[in-house]
């Protein structure tokens, strides 16, 4: 790609509001997040003589990049809210990932209780996906894993699936019309999107007035809230509940009661992996790059802060176009 100062940023609004938004566009912000957080879009336009507001519920989206290089589709979103400001006279449209509906007609976000018995991860995800109108996408390494007994007690389906995913160091996330259940770092690839590693080098001229300016903060892991984990299982032969503990105090108590020692220890192992996986955190502001996406790998090189260099796993990216194009990135060091 050419020198950043020679590139022309592009933001193309797509979907139902494209005709009114594109010629009036002031700014567009897209948040791409890993895990359960819903991706979102915010479009601000000059209201002027716009007349009637766009209707909520419509599908909107955008593409960002550079005229001289790649212009990438950043997703589809359902328009959830429209608001207008008097001075300056602007109209703001906000949307969330297309399957997240504020009205929640299928009660995806309503707390429910159910005991799941003698099934598999694939069976659970497929049943919940079908109930809410999603098409399930389950990674091959996870779909066949057995679930002999797991209680969903006053939990939303999303929260329950998130807890199930945590037990296997995985992520469950609605993406457009799909409900994806996959190992961490592979959600986007399960949707068919190829996530290529992104390389960022320290610019030769790194000053705030330069279009290629990069700044950021790296911080060490926070103090752990827990140093160990406790789980309970029921011994049918002894007719008693038995406690298993790993690590030191304070210990996190897992809410489920398992039906064997092996199941309890598997749950403890997964939770301990999550507890001890915390690494360095990176907060970065850099020139816009449409290939930056949650769950892709970021390679940093040439930076005067040695701890900033190396490979990172992206947790969240905010793409902002307002005539110029910048990205804010939050990432963690893979452990």
Provide a brief overview of the structure.
This is Phage late control D family protein. It comes from Oceanospirillum sediminis. With 335 residues, this protein is mainly beta.
What brief labels describe this structure?
single chain, 335 residues, mainly beta, Thrombin, subunit H, Phage tail protein beta-alpha-beta fold, Elongation Factor Tu (Ef-tu), domain 3, 4 domains, 12-stranded mixed β-sheet, 3-stranded mixed β-sheet, 6 helices, 20 strands
Layout of helices and strands, plus pairs?
Blueprint: E1 9-15, H1 18-21, E2 25-33, E3 40-46, E4 59-66, E5 71-85, E6 90-97, E7 112-120, H2 121-131, E8 135-138, H3 140-143, E9 146-155, H4 157-167, E10 170-175, E11 178-183, H5 187-190, E12 198-201, E13 215-219, E14 228-235, E15 240-247, E16 251-258, H6 261-276, E17 281-287, E18 297-301, E19 310-321, E20 325-332
Parallel strand pairs: 8-11, 12-18, 14-16
Antiparallel strand pairs: 1-4, 2-3, 2-19, 3-6, 4-5, 5-6, 7-9, 10-11, 13-17, 14-15, 17-20, 18-19, 19-20
What does this structure look like?
It is a single chain. The chain is mainly beta and 335 residues long. It has 4 domains: 4-97, Thrombin, subunit H (Beta Barrel), CATH 2.40.10; 112-183, 3-Layer(bab) Sandwich (Phage tail protein beta-alpha-beta fold), CATH 3.55.50.10; 198-220 and 279-332, Bacteriophage T4, Gp27, baseplate hub, domain 3 (Elongation Factor Tu (Ef-tu), domain 3, Beta Barrel); 228-278, no CATH class. It is built from 6 helices and 20 strands. It has helices spanning 18-21, 121-131, 140-143, 157-167, 187-190, 261-276; strands at 9-15, 25-33, 40-46, 59-66, 71-85, 90-97, 112-120, 135-138, 146-155, 170-175, 178-183, 198-201, 215-219, 228-235, 240-247, 251-258, 281-287, 297-301, 310-321, 325-332. Strands 1, 2, 3, 4, 5, 6, 12, 13, 17, 18, 19 and 20 form a 12-stranded mixed beta sheet that branches. Strands 8-11-10 form a 3-stranded mixed beta sheet. The chain is globular. The mean pLDDT is 87.
